[in-house]
Amino acid sequence: MKKRLLLLLGLAMAAAVSIADAQTLVPPGNRNAVQPDIPGASSRRTQATNTTFQAKYRKVYALLKSDADLRAKISKEAAAYGIDPMHIVGAIVGEHTYNVDAYDRLQTYYVKAISYLSSKLSFAYDGEDISDFVQRPEFKKCAGMTDSYDLWECREQVWNHSFRGKSVGGTSFPNDRFGATFFQPYYAGQTFGLGQLNPLTALQMSDLVHKVSGLPKLDVGDPNTVYKTIMDPDLTLAYVAATIRTSIDAYKNIAGFDISDNPGLTATLYNVGNPEQRASALKAENDKRRAAGEPEKLPEENYYGWLVNDKLDELKALF
Predict the structure, then answer these.
(1) Which domain holds residue 195?
(2) What share of the chain is helix, strand, coil (3-state, %, to 5)?
């Protein structure tokens, strides 16, 4: 019996070593020598506001440099979620360089957050509230899921498979993202706050944030509080950190890559979303490469993550 226990222990230790060995640490820095192409929509949005990417970067950099309280908040949330602060900084810098300008003062975000509590918002499409929409029979397979991330990921998959770009029950649904269709009361594609989060991402991260940070769980039936949470810097940074933590875990557990030393990669995933699907696709590609005797492909940054890695030394100097 003792020998059997020792054997089982040895096998468990060997398996642990094997799993650790299977995880490739992705080195810091960019895999691309030059910045990948920036989407036309981002360029047009920047030109429309009579500014440049460089000017927007300097503006968000100035906000980080001038506000010690903000830097302290970032460091606190990074520690809570076990990530380097540069991952959160990278997400903020990328969003405010390629999405919208940063406000000059953090106080403006607090004012905006309060304003959402008095607005009449709804998560709906063509008069159908999202709470009613997800009761349709197509979503039956998601009913038993209790974790907010799994639940909303499942619902998003059902949307893509059964509704996106299709006519169902006499209603024609747009060929657009779940988040853009149901979760943008103002206009499609809009994101908010210091981390430029969208409401669907916040809902996905609700349980993890509740567990780690102790914040109240978000309710899809209360859009005003969801938006207030996204806009409030004291609340939203936890959701930014949780989103990044989820991406790091997905690439480690699914694709076998440890991306925790590369803020440009986590910034890329923060920008494009769907880390589990992307990690699965990378794993499938590398399985084929290994079978063919070819070297594995490392995760690569996009234009957004490339900037973060390129500016990393300057950003690190702030902390």
Answers:
(1) 22-123+183-316
(2) 60, 5, 35
**Number of other CB atoms surrounding residue 299 within 10 Å:** 21
CA distance 31 to 12: 35
Yes or no: say if 278 and 269 are a contact pair by the CB < 8 Å rule: yes
- Count of domains for the chain: 1
The C-alpha R_g of the chain, in whole angstroms, comes to 21
Percent of the chain exceeding pLDDT 70 equals 85
Whole-model pTM?
A: 0.87
Q: How large is the average pLDDT for residues 140-154?
A: 96
Q: Which CATH number belongs to the domain containing residue 309 in this structure?
A: 1.10.530
CA dihedral 276, 280, 285, 287 (to 10 degrees): 140
Among 268, 235, 213, CA closest to 93: 268
Could you tell me if residue 252 is inside a domain? yes
* Residue 263 structure tokens: 């803020």
